[in-house]
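In response to the reviewer comment on reproducibility (Comment 2.3), we provide here a single inverse folding case reported in full, input and output, so that an independent group could reproduce the run without further information from us. The structure tokens appear first.
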């Protein structure tokens, strides 16, 4: 009976946390389309000032997230991951709602920094599912969970734009804040975590966790891969619409085409993530990860030589398959090779690297596009991905002949997870 109850717990948690990830992803992305327009209403700025302030307001959230995530990860290992989900969703409720009342851009930037400090819902949701799901189903479960954030991030800009056009910029923040409060209440009432609080003096130090990792190079490789994936995705955000304008010779519905082209990888990722998650359960997530990176290189290189929008759309759709392979594979590998006692901290470090990618990606894209041309950003991203592949080859070499993950010995997190499911 205990086993059945725990099995039902992870299934129920998966679906409620999927909704939580969906609404959190939407909450982060809903205000992106009109952020610059909203800032423009808070003062009188020239073009350069508006671009700089928008860039700072956008990046400050991710920079703050990168700095504080390890601290929240330590608390997650000490007190549990559900409290961290509640802390993140309630913090976002307050900060996003408060953005609707700001009198000037300085207050907005401060609030967005605080929002970044209170983030962490998605990585703690991943940790809750990873710590309880049977290993032979972890790929599919984490792949399914990843689609929640993808769909939310995909639909957020569309819904945010509709709300801003229909009711106003400030009202869009109020609705987003209410949505995050729903996430808080849903997590409080319906997500259940079996976790025994650990006294501070009994916690395994973070340095010891890293020292005891069987494959430390692999874990650092996963951190770097997460950062590069995010940087690759974000490097295009500042240039895609301008590139499309150039490809369309400044004719046609450029905004609409840009929206469709931007959303294509997310649509494909939504469909492919659970399927590739199941594949990683059968052949091993390290194989899915490496092939996903190779596919990303194959996509980015020809993007640097496109001559029309159709070519760009087809390659970005193919890139969605790569995205679907990469993030769930990373989560599966960390689930298996990290001790359960360190899940919160390791997953939070991974989130910090992801946030650094969100900061560095747009900066790289802007610099490369300014020095060369828009398509050069894709070639620069391909070079990053190639370097990532070369780094991961030795990091994953020992795993390639290990077979499906369910057949591997009790390494790292597996022994702990079996204790949960026994």
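Designed residues, in position order:
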């Amino acid at each position: 009976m205990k086993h059945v109850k725990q099995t039902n717990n992870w299934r129920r948690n998966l679906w409620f946390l999927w909704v939580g990830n969906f609404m959190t992803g939407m909450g982060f992305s809903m205000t992106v389309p009109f952020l610059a327009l909203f800032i423009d209403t808070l003062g009188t700025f020239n073009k350069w000032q508006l671009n700089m302030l928008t860039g700072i307001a956008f990046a400050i959230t991710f920079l703050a997230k990168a700095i504080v995530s390890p601290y929240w990860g330590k608390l997650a290992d000490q007190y549990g991951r559900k409290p961290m989900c509640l802390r993140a969703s309630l913090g976002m409720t307050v900060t996003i709602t408060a953005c609707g009342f700001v009198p000037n851009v300085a207050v907005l930037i401060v609030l967005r920094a605080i929002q970044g400090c209170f983030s962490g819902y998605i990585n703690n949701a991943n940790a809750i599912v990873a710590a309880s799901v049977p290993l032979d189903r972890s790929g599919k479960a984490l792949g399914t969970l990843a689609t929640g954030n993808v769909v939310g991030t995909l639909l957020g800009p569309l819904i945010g734009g509709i709300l801003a056009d229909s009711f106003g910029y400030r009202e869009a923040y109020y609705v987003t804040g209410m949505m995050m409060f729903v996430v808080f209440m849903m997590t409080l009432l319906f997500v259940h975590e079996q976790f025994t609080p650990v006294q501070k003096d009994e916690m395994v130090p973070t340095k010891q966790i890293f020292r005891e990792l069987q494959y430390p190079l692999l874990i650092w490789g996963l951190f770097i891969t997460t950062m590069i994936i995010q940087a690759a995705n974000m490097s295009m955000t500042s240039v895609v619409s301008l590139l499309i304008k150039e490809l369309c010779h400044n004719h046609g519905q450029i905004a609409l085409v840009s929206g469709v082209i931007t959303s294509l990888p997310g649509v494909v990722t939504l469909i492919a993530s659970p399927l590739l998650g199941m594949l990683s359960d059968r052949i091993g997530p390290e194989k899915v990860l490496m092939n996903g990176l190779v596919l990303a290189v194959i996509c980015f290189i020809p993007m640097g030589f496109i001559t029309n929008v159709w070519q760009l759309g087809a390659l970005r759709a193919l890139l969605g398959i790569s995205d679907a392979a990469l993030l769930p594979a990373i989560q599966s590998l960390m689930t298996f090779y990290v001790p359960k006692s360190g899940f919160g901290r390791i997953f939070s470090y991974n989130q910090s690297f992801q946030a650094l990618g969100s900061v560095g990606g747009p900066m790289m894209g802007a610099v490369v596009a300014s020095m060369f041309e828009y398509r050069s950003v894709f070639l620069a991203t391909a070079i990053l991905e190639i370097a990532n592949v070369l780094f991961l080859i030795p990091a994953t070499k020992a795993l390639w002949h290990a077979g499906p993950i369910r057949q591997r010995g009790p390494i790292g997190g597996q022994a702990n997870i079996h204790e949960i499911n026994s």
